[in-house]
Amino acid sequence: MAISKKSRPNEEMEVSDVPASLAGDVQKPAGDHDAVFGEITEEGPNYRNVGWMGTVALMMKTMIGLGVLSIPSAFNTLGIVPGVICMCTIAGITTWSNYIVGVFKLRHREVYGIDDAGGLIFGRAGREILGAAFCIYWIFVSGSGMLGISIGLNAISHHGTCTAVFVAVAAIIGLCLASIRTLGRISWIAWVGLVSILSSIFIVTVAVGVQDRPSAAPQEGHWTSDYKIVNHPSFTEAATALSSLVFAYAGTPAFFPIAAEMRDPRLYTRALVICQVGVTATYLAIGCVVYYFCGSYVASPALGSAGPLMKKICYGLALPGLAATTTIVIHLPSKYIFLRLMRGSKHLISNSAVHWGTWLGCTFGTTIIAYIIASAIPVFGDLVSLIGALLGTLMSFQPMGCMWLYDNWSKDKQDRTAKWYVMVCWSSFVILSGTFLMIGGTYGSVVSIINSYKASGGSAAWSCADNSNSV
Fold this sequence. Notes:
Blueprint: E1 33-34, E2 38-39, H1 52-63, H2 71-78, H3 80-107, H4 114-122, H5 124-157, H6 163-178, H7 183-210, H8 235-248, H9 252-260, H10 268-294, H11 308-342, H12 353-376, H13 380-394, H14 398-408, H15 418-455
Antiparallel strand pairs: 1-2
Helix pairs in contact: 1-7, 1-9, 1-10, 2-3, 2-8, 2-10, 3-9, 3-10, 3-14, 4-5, 4-14, 5-6, 5-11, 5-12, 5-13, 6-11, 6-12, 7-10, 7-11, 8-13, 8-15, 11-12, 13-15, 14-15
Family: Belongs to the amino acid/polyamine transporter 2 family.
Transmembrane segments: 50-71, 77-101, 129-150, 156-177, 189-210, 238-259, 271-293, 313-332, 353-377, 383-406, 418-439
GO molecular function: L-amino acid transmembrane transporter activity
């Protein structure tokens, strides 16, 4: 691994590197120079205007979406005890990965996205590979968000019109909101979406606990939940379940641009701790309670587990959350492309026609690609799982282990303490475990795609069929 002279592992910490607990949430003054965006002035967008509470909302919303509702199904595959152990392990690894994102940003202020980190560590190849992975991953997640909105609209309207129309409506909503230029102005959407999705999933969690049986269970005779303490899945089933858990925490690549737009990146760790604790507590509560009461009859996504009426109510409440997720995941790849085109140009921070034309072109192009992928690919759901297993894992584990090694490997022998050796082993473990999960999850997803084709050939392109019937 090449170690650049730009890394400063042995130098004294700058004032900007002080712990977040000692820093104040200070507004970024107009006219200041930013290593990524250049001069921040009052004449253009303020890209450094996300407070630490807005950061919490953006972080949590990139992770908590309909992906959380696949957790009970993962517990059904693994068993509740192995499921909880695996989830907590993944939560611990991704928390460290997310922490390293903030540390790396403070040490290398010129870093905006994961591609910049890849460029520092691996050169041009690393920049281009991770940049392409970042765009592809979030564009596919954008398509998934559009389908999520279409499922919600179908559920609350009794399939009021062709599903292809609902997907188009979702794309228009995402395009309009994602075209807001800064994450600081999008953070209020993240708050609304977070409250919305949390209300929805906690209501379905309560509902499955008070009802007699889940909607998918036999409706006559005595019924008890068939939940399993420990299950014995095949390798493919276990790999797919683990991929679902990883995907639930795979917001890590979004944390780079979020940190880049913070008013004070020193408060990143504070926001991260609140985010990870809240997300993990939510996942554990929902996963354990819903699976305990539903057993193998849990729906995936789980909003359909409590019957038709509750499905309508929960999807109605979830719609703003689904729209917020779609907004953010369209904005992220659009902003990445925009910065690649405009970085170093006066148009990046101005309100010029070139600025607006390029920005709207990026959001429109991203939205159209996501819409086409979501509507035209017959096995889209399984393909999203494949992209999540391959690219989501790739960008949430291995780069962060490499980032720590990049900043610390060149320490002199006298500075290599016991802690240094432990961290080298830990970073190596993160890289190896991420690679194992990536390969295993990708294999499981490919097998699932093959089985889907054998069973039904997948769904039709631009289908009008009600996609809420199966959830």
